[in-house]
Design a protein that fits this description.
Two copies of one chain form a homodimer.
Chain A: H1 3-18, H2 23-30, H3 34-41, H4 49-58
Domain HTH cro/C1-type (chains A, B): 12-66
Pfam family, one (chains A, B): HTH_3
Protein name (chains A, B): Helix-turn-helix transcriptional regulator
């Protein structure tokens, strides 16, 4: 489990909660399996850039806003 | 082949050339197969966020600087 995946997952979880999505509602809106979202948020998955954009679209934010700066890792 | 992968690949190629790397030298520095780099640059691969950070580290730039804005896709 990498620091990058962990931080990215935490950022996604925070943004999801801020937007008032449960994991279930978010999974439904994103068309992604609920257990997969859980694994992403726990940093257990290395998601693709494509998936990052899909998640950011549902969260109505820029994909880059979810990514940690290189020098913080 | 998605618009995202195509644009990301083009950005990586431009940055690689600006930094004076041949594809061979870049592949060596990044520890990535040369044919894989070619496929990334042509937008034929959906790379992971992890791989994006590795590529950006070799190119000495922020990973986010290689990503297109959501609304340009």
């Amino acid at each position: 489990m990498s620091e990058l995946a962990t931080t990215l997952g935490r950022n996604i979880r925070e943004k999801r909660k801020k937007n008032g999505f449960s994991q279930d509602a978010f999974a439904l809106a994103a068309g992604i399996d609920r257990s997969y979202i859980g694994r992403v948020e726990r940093g257990e998955v290395n998601i693709t850039v494509e998936k990052l954009y899909e998640i950011a679209a549902v969260l109505q934010c820029e994909p880059t806003s979810l990514l940690p700066a290189q020098n913080t890792l």
